[in-house]
Specification:
Layout: H1 3-17, E1 21-31, H2 38-49, E2 64-73, E3 80-86, H3 88-92, E4 95-96, H4 112-121, E5 128-129, E6 134-138, E7 144-153, E8 160-165, E9 198-202, E10 207-211, H5 215-225, H6 251-260, H7 267-279
Antiparallel strand pairs: 1-2, 2-3, 4-5, 6-7, 7-8, 8-9, 9-10
């Protein structure tokens, strides 16, 4: 088990065993054991999806598909959190366009990426497009984005998704054409190759915002927040029109997290929350 996988599993166990937390749903997920490590994951994404990601994208590497939890505080049931993780290959590599994986490859422990590698090794031509975990999301001004999701919130009814934004026509980072190998390249941070932008959307709030953090940083912060509802907004521009009517005050949620997990340091998150409130004049 990779180091970060152990940390994710420990975080989930900590939620289940904490008397301050009511867990409504917990999914241990399935490990994609066929992935041998972070370099293998990046290589699969490059060869199957035609997308080159920066080596740093494999930091905080995990192979979980469907590890998640929906929880709320016993002291205040209005406040809680949720996460549901897809590993990097699952988020970046989609379904096979031509052909369906053979029955022996249909197990949830397998993936179309692994199947595709085997077919290619046998000299067979297989075409792909990025479909797995894809969502069309909309902001308050009808702005549309396509996200390759790696974290979702569905059990709570929030309808949140965090993912890599597919490049729009003419954007830097576009790779390939629709329906062809490599289709669905990502919009990249400042046009820097291999660093996809991360966006967050909540359809019940009409929010669509770009987050100012990397994929490994997202995972690290998720560990700390345990998926606290709204934590992603702390990494968005407080004046971003994509926030819609969302006005998140995370002070109480962070205070309850500090009480439930006193050994963790939430000072940076508290500072971000205070800064957001000041920017909004609250």
């Amino acid at each position: 088990m990779a180091d970060f996988e152990g940390r994710l599993a420990a975080m989930l166990d900590g939620l289940r065993s904490n008397d301050a937390i009511e867990v409504y749903d917990a999914e241990p997920g399935v490990l994609a054991s066929w992935l041998t490590g972070p370099n293998h994951a990046l290589d699969v994404i490059r060869r199957v999806a035609g997308t080159d990601l920066a080596p740093s994208m494999a930091d905080n590497f995990h192979r979980y598909e469907g590890l998640g939890c929906y929880w709320r505080f016993r002291a205040d049931g209005r406040i809680g959190g949720e996460f549901y993780l897809h590993h990097l290959v699952s988020a970046c590599v989609g379904e096979v366009v031509d052909g369906v994986p053979d029955e022996e490859w249909s197990s949830s422990e397998r993936s179309t990426a692994e199947w595709a590698e085997a077919k290619r090794a046998a000299g067979e031509d297989v075409r792909y497009r990025l479909l797995c975990n894809i969502s069309d999301v909309y902001g308050p001004n009808e702005e549309e984005r396509i996200l390759n999701g790696f974290d979702q919130q569905g059990q709570s009814g929030i309808g949140g998704i965090a993912g890599f934004a597919a490049a729009e026509e003419g954007e830097e980072g576009k790779e390939g054409e629709e329906g062809e190998e490599g289709a669905g390249g990502f919009a990249t941070v400042g046009g820097e190759s291999g660093q996809p932008e991360i966006w967050y959307s909540v359809n019940t709030d009409g929010t669509l915002v770009r987050l100012n953090l990397t994929y490994p940083e997202y995972l690290e912060t998720l560990l700390l927040t345990r998926g606290l509802f709204g934590w992603q907004y702390l990494y968005a521009d407080p004046h971003d029109p994509g926030l819609g009517y969302r006005r998140t005050d995370l002070r109480l949620g962070l205070a309850l997290l500090e009480q439930a997990f006193p050994d963790d340091d939430f000072s940076d998150l508290r500072a971000r929350s205070d800064a957001h409130l000041r920017h909004r004049g609250e």
